[in-house]
Amino acid sequence: MALYTIIFIIGCLLLPDVYVWGKNDRNCWFSWCNYIHHYGVQNIYKLGVDYPPLVHYFLWLIAKIQGSSDMIYLNIYKLKYLVLAVEMLSIYMVYRILESKKYTLSYILPLIILFNIAFWYNNVFFGQVDGVYTAFAFISLAFAVFKRPTFSLLFFILCVNFKFQGIIFLPIIFLTLFDEVKRYGFKKIVLLLLPSLFLQIIIFLPFILTGDMKLAFNSFSESMGRYPFVSMGAYNVWSLIFTHPETMNDNSGIFNFSFNTIGLLSFFGLSGLILLPFGLKSLGIFNEKIQLEFSFENVLLATTLIILVFFYFNTQMHARYSHPVVLFAGTLAILRKDYLRFLLVSMAVFLNMEGASKILKGNIAEFESVWFQPLFVSLLFLVVIALYFYDYLVLIFNNIKIS
């Protein structure tokens, strides 16, 4: 733990004290934080914000530490410190996973993920907070595999209350938990659920007391569909189909299906296929035929694929929505001692993030290099998805008895 604490302190000293990208988002962080400073976190939804409650608790902490509007404006970049702190918790959880499996150098290997530019680009340069819900989802899944359902549910509550996009992790976490919880009696299940219910009430309590519960609840869904474009900077399947997907409304489409609907059907269909063997195993269906285990290697492979198909096929995707895959794929790579796929997926994530933001490039002119072209990066993501699907099919065929 001391090693990761030292790295965190050094990281805070090295973090840029400016936002070089996302001026609109930076202004949101400042204006929301300043509003919370003057009127309290309990009134934030009167401002018409569309982020879930836990984000505003982070901003409340920044407001309390800074103490004045001027200091908030000058130091809003310190939100990056909080994001980094939570990300370090996820890296520490990688260490605990490796330690439980008796890996040599278990405290060093997680640094392969941490020192990967694709991992820290989103927070350090973008100034975005996707690393927080990613970390909470990862820790929740880890506790599920460790058969610690209470902690798993608590971290999942934190995940979806920070960003509702974390709901994509619910099926695999639920199936992993159910494989353990199905043996519990009714009383034990109730006792298991109570801490999570209590945490959710605590998160909502300030908004309940001010009569803004409905506004807080609506924040989970109001951001969906806010930017109805085929792409918001993601170099995914739509970059293979259209030259400028960012200019196309995703409500248009073909064969009476909008592009948004096609993307959602593709995601739900593929993720359903990925989860089907785990669902059958968890529910005890064809139990004598399916030998699939809810091991870290298996659930991380399934989760990595789910993140990828979510990002690759859906419309309205930002470049940063690929960020969660780095943590999950990185841990999987360490466990399997297979780093080729991790290298490729890290390249794809970084090339998309930099290609869309041009932060390191230093200007808004389009890249001329082929490496940063949407078509190339989209094909790279497609290759990565194909490789992970190959691994998945091998896993399934090796764990199903056909007779």
TrEMBL record:
It comes from the Bacteria. It comes from Lacihabitans soyangensis. The chain crosses the membrane at residues 6-22, 81-98, 104-122, 129-146, 152-177, 189-209, 254-276, 296-313, 371-397. This is DUF2029 domain-containing protein. The keyword Transmembrane applies. The lineage of its organism: Bacteria, Pseudomonadati, Bacteroidota, Cytophagia, Cytophagales. Keywords: Membrane, Transmembrane, Transmembrane helix. The keyword Transmembrane applies.
